[in-house]
Amino acid sequence: MNDCTSTSGNVRTVSFRDPAGQVLAVDDRILRIVNRSGLPNLNSCLASKTVQRFMDRGRLAATRVLDASETMKLLENVRLKNLFENAAGRIIIEHEQVPFRSYPYEWPPEMLHEAARLTLDLATGLLEEGLGLKDATPYNVLFQACEPVFIDLLSIERREPGDPIWLPYTQFVQAFLLPLLANKYFGIPLADLLISRRDGLKPEEVYPLCGLHRKLLPPFLTMVTIPAWLTARHKKKDLTIYQKRYSDNFDQVRFILQSQFGNLRRALERLAPQGNRKSYWSSYTLRNDSYSRDQFAAKRAFVENIIMEFCPKRVLDVGCNNGCYSAIAAGRGARVVAIDRDPDVVGAVWRHARSQGLDILPMVVDICRPSPATGWRNRECAPFLERAGGAFDAVLMLAVIHHMLISERVPLPEIIDLAADLTTDLLVIEYIAPADPMFRSLARSNEHLYQDLAPGCFEAACRRRFNIVRQLQLNNSRILYLMRNKSGGRHA
Amino acid sequence: MKKICCESEKKGPCGIKKACLQDVFALSSRARNAGHVLKIILACMAVLIITENKAYAYTDPGTGTLIWQGLLAAFFGAIFYIKKIINLFKRKKNGQ
What we know:
The complex is a heterodimer of chains A (492) and B (96). Helices cover 41% and strands 18% of the residues of chain A. By secondary structure, chain A is of the alpha+beta class. A 7-stranded mixed sheet of chain A has the order 13-12-11-14-15-17-16, sandwiched between helices. Chain A has a 6-stranded antiparallel sheet with strand order 1-2-3-4-6-5. Chain A has a two-stranded antiparallel sheet with strand order 7-10. The longest helix of chain B is centred in the middle third of the chain and has 33 residues. Chains A and B meet through helix 6, helix 8, helix 9, helix 10 and helix 11 of A and helix 2 and helix 3 of B.
């Protein structure tokens, strides 16, 4: 499933690739027009026990078929009626909305691995009922907090019982396994691989990266070397490999497919990201010498008191690092999106939040270089700032603005404007003076550029968009502020 | 290899039973054979890699993986029948 293609009033078309139907966002609802060609598969899908089981566990987006009266009422909207008629729609179904959309290039490897596991689980489960998946792309999965949800119901189809080939096998290998492999063994960030490649990596692209010994050993041998060699040897004009071959022995076909899914699962488990990955930022908060123990406790208490007092519903934690403030907000019932540029720390936040059952969606996003619009006509996946704008009633920017000011050279008023675009109400922000050791270490010999950044200047820049509610001086160079957006006001 | 075995049989040293020694040598011989097989496989793979032609990822729709999947399907298809035959034998044996 993709994102927006066009907007009119309160109706926005969301996908265009599937010939069996079209997804629409109507107000806050996700609807799908299903045409005649999609109906048989949809009926099989809705009657499936596996589908029901996955829906009950929240692993498949909950779906209901709208009755005639609801459909008629919706079709009073002229734009929706035109779309329904153009798509030769027969019925409309409604999917449960996932609160915040994230895309594969914004996931740490742990999340891509979990999305792959869900895809395989679903394909294996459906096999027992003679159903299968038409495609195996990570874009069929969104994350609700830390849990993957399969969203593309029309990807489920009735299989030819004698067909021993699972066609999305190649797509699964290229979109899930090879990016995980390139990330695990060569340290290539998933964002670098997936932002410009919708279907992931091909074996021939990984092959030149491998040394001789790797080419000969698993998992490279079967995932990279042999397929690359077979591709090179295959005569381009020979199309016989694409011809369907059916078997009369359905038990054998089921055995072959189960064995192939088992094979893919073993390959996937071999590529599971290591839990003990460490980067410079992994233990940054813990070894941070910018605060004493008491100051750190005071900072935690400042944030905790705000969360308890204002009870924000949707929180964005910018530069979340180990996610301790995200965990405080999620522990008080907020739905949190935690972003950081480092995939290793985001992976650690995902593991921790998942083990604790916290409502945190961790994403690999650099706030200074947020994910752009991607896909066909830049309309398939919305840019991060478009999804995040006004979507939060509290934004945390703790120990982060000096990185934006110095490393990225973003002027302070720009940072404050961005914060005002993101939050409809609260901003908790940490001021860091140029005298701060971390500030000086980042600025190196350019300290003179920031000499005007006194607390007074900082507050003046903030007052353009925010009212300062309270502040806490942590030490000589760090001050915490609670501010409220002047133009936002609380979201319902 | 035979020669070594014979020599060790003659010595029968240090209280270790001759049969036991023979087993050890048989095992090591098998391991060496397996080592040879592995070397041959690795050599074949090395030839395979050295003679690798250039493939153009941009224009190829994943042909290699599709062929590999077909080969795996054929392999698992054969395993299905082998398993069936083994189960048949097992059932007969249990019946006896």
